[in-house]
Amino acid sequence: xxxxxxxxxxxxxxxxxxxxxxxxxxxxxxxxxxxxxxxxxxxxxxxxxxxxxxxxxxxxxxxxxxxxxxxxxxxxxxxxxxxxxxxxxxxxxxxxxxxxxxxxxxxxxxxxxxxxxxxxxxxxxxxxxxxxxxxxxxxxxxxxxxxxxxxxxxxxxxxxxxxxxxxxxxxxxxxxxxxxxxxxxxxxxxxxxxxxxxxxxxxxxxxxxxxxxxxxxxxxxxxxxxxxxxxxxxxxxxxxxxxxxxxxxxxxxxxxxxxxxxxxxxxxxxxxxxxxxxxxxxxxxxxxxxxxxxxxxxxxxxxxxxxxxxxxxxxxxxxxxxxxxxxxxxxxxxxxxxxxxxxxxxxxxxxxxxxxxxxxxxxxxxxxxxxxxxxxxxxxxxxxxxxxxxxxxxxxxxxxxxxxxxxxxxxxxxxxxxxxxxxxxxxxxxxxxxxxxxxxxxxxxxxxxxxxxxxxxxxxxxxxxxxxxxxxxxxxxxxxxxxxxxxxxx
Length: 490
Hints:
By secondary structure, the protein is α/β, with parallel strands linked by helices. The chain contains 23 helices and 16 strands. It has helices at 7-11, 17-22, 25-39, 54-63, 78-84, 111-120, 146-149, 155-161, 175-178, 194-205, 232-235, 241-246, 259-269, 284-298, 312-331, 341-346, 349-352, 359-364, 366-386, 392-399, 412-419, 425-431, 440-456; strands at 68-71, 92-96, 126-130, 135-139, 151-153, 171-173, 182-187, 208-211, 214-217, 222-228, 249-252, 404-405, 460-462, 467-470, 478-480, 487-489. The strands form 6 sheets. Strands 4-7-10-1-11 form a 5-stranded parallel β-sheet. Strands 12-14-13 form a 3-stranded antiparallel β-sheet. The chain has a two-stranded antiparallel sheet with strand order 2-3. Strand 8 and strand 9 form a beta hairpin. Mean pLDDT is 88; it is low at 475-490.
């Protein structure tokens, strides 16, 4: 069906005039949300781990027609949630064609559109605005001005139109008016200067805007949402009290609460579909170790908890792990691409840049912290898989003087030949059912996993060159107890 092109055609079409006259954007989101809830449709399909915590609070805020703020550490999907709110808007809405603030044809608020309708009547051109175009986002920085957010007087408009500077027709609208009949989002709200925040709460409560000292009544129809990091309240800025008072709901986000949730998020976000011919096989224990690194880092007293450990860490680590395995397959002209433990160590550069360290961590260095996290993560995941499997023969082989040197660039066949002399290692890997018996690359990956797990349990030793030897009881190594988090010396 052809869409109406003028106000007259719009009035004679199936579009409900009363609906657009009476319904605000918050009412629109509320009604569409209710429909989704009644139909059982998943509200935010790309958001994992918030079904029983954050999403119900967002639903309540929208049902209450609240402006809201998402409060949480970095990498907790705050911006993604805000952008997903557009799914609660209508597919498209009618606007007066060419209007800077998306004026409602049935109830225009800007003077230019009111004059246009007076002059052209039912012949006023109409356009339609899709839901994605109704979302405006601004990253708060200290240099943002009130003109950026609200607008300013445009002397060129005044000169060309012969208007006084106090005339509404001379206004160049800022981001907030341009979000009229949509969603306006501000990321990192505390970074916004206090005087700009004052302008925001004035709009949120009274709808009274002053530009260059001239009072202009502009009753905007907008849903305003914010994000903030708790660290910012003291580190970089603050949210002024009157603005906080006008934000209806403050919703706290969080990191994944279970390893399985974290793995699902990482699988969803990481670039793992780079080979469509099934060449790539990422073992589940590799995914779990990568995710466990982030979990341990968030609970490590050497890492700054106020900054948090972003979910981007396991995402980028997994991508780097796959890339190192891909590089090895290319060098050795192998078809199968299977990541190993050595590939996780090769991905340390994607860990160190995402850790904000406390004083003791700074003294040790990010590289050593990353290596310790990989070792501890490997040990935890190893315990889950090999708790009831006897690895005594492997440990005894090293205790009798055996030494094993591995490389993350050696092909699967060469590495497997190096691993076979270790008594019981290949057999244990095959018996674990983590690898197919006829897939050399998978067997090598599981063997490295076993060796790293035994190293994490202090049953064998490993140096930075990936050389495994017998455990050294006299070696003094600082590590952190998983239960007490107290510093101990072995």
